[in-house]
């Protein structure tokens, strides 16, 4: 069916009412859903297909409390709804999504939207929770009061959007209230109208109950709460090492077998070397870390979907305030554990520009998942698999590295505050979502997305860079009668020796120096690159043995120094590109790269010297 004039509807509502979950259900998309406000910061478009075969274009928007924005992400919502964006017409109809358990708050925006005089429908989302709490909502009455169709939805059940789909089918019949152009009503007037409507349509909705206060007494307790937070994070890093061992061994065995098979079944020559030393040792060597990444995200997703995260933000708010970060920075910084890029984009929920900039500048110090392969490799090679009481030393070290990232972010933020004489501390205002059991569907979508992103990276950027590195490390071939490993005569080998002048003071050998260059594009590439470089210098053995090789050839001091380097170094061009986009200037990405490289070099230098001095 042709749909040149496909119907376009926008999902509009308060933060955390389930717009994105509904969007995913309608369009089959896999956008991020989590139990806190401010998850979506950009508009996303998808297509829903109705029973009749008709298609509807659906726009998911950042949550907004009102059409008068106080943050950049809310401004996106206003601009899309009002059709103020140059590249996009206003939506034909509005689906106002509300959290049915919090109507007194959510209906205000609905009344504001209604004044626009557009075809509109109300989706009472979280109908399951509302029912479980015994909230009685007279849907017909509510519909009559508001003058728009009202449907109940449950965005976390596979058929939870059936009523909405049926209404979309007959969208042309949605009534349109006349547009009101008089001055916008004050919040108090809006609230009065909401009360009036609820008094007749859902009287029980006005009795606002707090359900979670008993749990919160512990979770948000200044001492017990912090202890719980530390324990949770700690368990998470333990699991990254102890649970991942089995699947990692399986992947390693498979790539090793592939390498061995190629070595016996192919004639020796450049193509075999490209496959074994380039592709398998390089990209294959990075793939091994998939289980650890998934375990880390399994925990992060659980914390996100349960409603725990904003509580942790409150716990840490005073600490963050002391170093000059806004409490709102917590969630962007936490997202940066996945990757600094969504983290930096999530800073759009911070209203104050200085606060936002400070958060952007420290976001790359949070340990992103691309560092995990590097850390895991170095930890497995150099930290013994020993148990201290119930703790495993490798997990403990990883935990320490994450803490190091966080602490350095605090120090840098504090220094920035000094330089910029920032605005005074503003206490955190953030809605606490109710606790929820994490949904299996969300969990599955979240893990699947992480796996997909990682495998795509391995298959594209990591693969191409290791292949490129293989060429640079193989050609030109060594001159006749050359003695050392062939790679030393190659372009990459020569570059590595040149760079070594810069890196020798911090203990890096030429192999590491080479690996750092492609690793600038993306951190994990450094692992793949080390695999390729050592496979080529080793002379023909099966490639996958990077771990024992570095364990044997590097001094402990070198290993620690390289770890310190990766805590700080801005080895990620995409992050710098996003900073350029978000700040609209080259100044901040350049400043960021400069300060991070300086920190990395200094930290590695100190680490290396101290380690040597201690006799490692
Ligand atoms: N029980 C239940 N949970 C829901 C329902 N809809 C959404 N959720 C949960 O509510 C939380 C918020 O969902 P999102 O879809 O991220 O909310 P959003 O409106 O897009 O939030 P922002 O992007 O921050 O504005 C998640 O934990 C969802 O799993 C529902 O109908 N029932
Ligand atoms: Mg959303």
UniProtKB/TrEMBL annotation:
Protein name: Ferrous iron transport protein B
Pfam families tied to this protein: FeoB_C (PF07664), FeoB_N (PF02421), Gate (PF07670)
Positions of the FeoB-type G domain: 6-174
Membrane-traversing stretches: 223-246, 274-303, 357-383, 395-416, 454-472, 557-578, 590-611
Species name: Piscinibacter gummiphilus
InterPro entries per record: Fe2_transport_prot_B_C, FeoB_GTPase, G_FEOB_dom, Gate_dom, GTP-bd, P-loop_NTPase
Matches recorded under PANTHER family: FE(2+) TRANSPORTER FEOB, FERROUS IRON TRANSPORT PROTEIN B
CDD domains in UniProt: FeoB
Top-level taxon in the UniProt lineage: Bacteria
The keyword Ligase appears for this protein: no
Keyword annotations: Membrane, Transmembrane, Transmembrane helix
